[in-house]
Amino acid sequence: MKVAVVGATGLVGTKMLQVLEERNFPVTELIPVASAKSVGKMVQFKGKAYQVVDADTAIMARPALALFSAGGGTSLALAPRFAEVGTTVVDNSSAWRMDPTKKLVVPEINADVLTPNDKIIANPNCSTIQMVMVLNPLHKAYRVKRVVVSTYQSVTGTGAKAVQQLMDERAGRPAAKVYPYQIDLNVIPQIDVFLENGYTKEEMKMVNETKKIMRDDTIRVTATTVRIPVVGGHSESVNIEFEHDFDLDTVRQLLAQTPGVVVQDNPAEALYPMPLCAHEKDEVFVGRIRRDESQPKSLNLWIVADNLRKGAATNAVQIAEYLYRQGWLQ
Questions:
Q1: Any idea which architecture 2-124+312-325 has in CATH?
Q2: Buried b (16+ CB within 10 A) or exposed e, 141-164
Q3: pLDDT of 51-101, one tens digit each?
Q4: CA dist 43 to 10, 57, 161, 241, 244, Å?
Q5: Active-site annotation holder among 126, 139, 244, 279
Q6: How many CB atoms lie within 10 A of CB 170?
């Protein structure tokens, strides 16, 4: 199968290549695509070197699949052009997520919405993915009424230049600023731009995408998203109010039985999820599971995942694997 990776030299694109190789996705010809300044560079895949090409060259090759991680503007411009030649696009940007004609997919939750005619498929926001992986089994059991989430997000979510800013600041070197402030030894309560309602775009992504993925517009979500000086792994403090009451042991059992979710919840042994432990893993980790004693039928928990893997690259490849299993990719 011909597979294009658009944005192949970026953090997520590089991770997509790694995940495709790890999961032995049936790539017979790789077409790495990047911006003009990266054309001609070489990327490694399964022990072979591949030359980065421009989008026009990739489109002429008519790949069966194109995994996109090159920003919203690039996706809006290029995804339809790939789709026109019969390529199925799985896009990691926010460009198509809330388009009513496009599917927004976490395979463990709603792969069943996909059809052979879906040529542009949206990969959700990294913070949304890890949250809905935990919310979904609980929603089925107890019906989620309201979610209050605060995120603690890695600099890798911004890209390689943000990682460099953190490392330069930590080493005491002059740093090119991707963020408006120093990130080392600091916390920045802004991810993406502010909107008229006082929330950021990142916060509203979590609100709107959760409803679309879980197919329930009655779920109320409010979010505060925060950037912290961590490399690799987003964390979330999540408070959930349900329609029906729950038993904590049953909650733990439900989550432990959910594919892709790992329960790490033993306070007596200081066992709880941390970015350090989620790094380079595909699972979503959940712990600090406890009843909210201030509000009936409410639960507090802590969710961590590697934002470059399940939050981005792995989820995209899992979508592709589903399409392949259905016989829709050739």
A1: 3-Layer(aba) Sandwich (3.40)
A2: ebebbebbbbbbbbbbbbeeebbe
A3: 999 999 999 999 999 999 999 999 999 999 999 999 999 999 999 999 999
A4: 11, 16, 19, 47, 51
A5: 126
A6: 13
pLDDT at residue 330, as a whole number: 78
Rounded to whole angstroms, what are the CA distances from 266 to 120, 135, 314? 42, 20, 28
Q: Is 234 a catalytic residue?
A: yes
- Which of 234, 244, 277, 279 is an active site residue? 234
Q: Quote the CA–CA distance of 85 and 168 in Å, as a whole number.
A: 44
CATH class for domain 127-307?
A: alpha beta
Q: Write the CB contacts of 136 (distance below 8 Å, at least 6 apart in sequence).
A: 108, 109, 214, 258
Q: Locate 324 and state its tokens.
A: 């392949």
Tokens of 3: 């597979």
Report in angstroms the alpha-carbon separations of 8 from 26, 78, 129, 189: 18, 15, 22, 30
Q: State pLDDT tens for residues 269-285.
A: 999 999 999 999 999 99
Report yes or no on whether pTM surpasses 0.90: yes
> The tokens of 112 are what?
């069943």
- The domain limits of the chain are 2-124+312-325, 127-307
